[in-house]
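Example S7 (structure tokens).
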């Protein structure tokens, strides 16, 4: 290579030019990423806050609409409001 000449352009998968730096694009399994992220979070913010943080992404289970309807199907609106105040 001549002095002042730039090395061949290497593009990553998005087309970004990183000059002579090669970007590693091997995919790490999602389970490994999850384990690593949880370890980092636990170290940085503690176990309790990590659990609180992760719990916001839980989708829960069951069918809320069916459960709600079965609980209040025989109640009037006034009765439901009264129960909520208790």
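Recovered sequence:
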């Amino acid at each position: 290579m001549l002095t002042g000449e730039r090395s061949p352009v290497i593009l990553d998968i998005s087309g970004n030019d990183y000059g002579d730096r090669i970007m590693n694009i091997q995919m790490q399994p999602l389970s490994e990423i999850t384990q690593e992220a949880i370890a980092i979070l636990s170290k940085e913010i503690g176990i309790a806050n990590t659990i609180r943080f992760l719990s916001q992404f839980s989708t829960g289970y069951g069918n809320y609409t069916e459960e709600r309807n079965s609980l209040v199907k025989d109640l009037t609106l006034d009765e439901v409001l009264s129960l909520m105040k208790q």
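Notes on this example. The longest helix spans residues 30-45.
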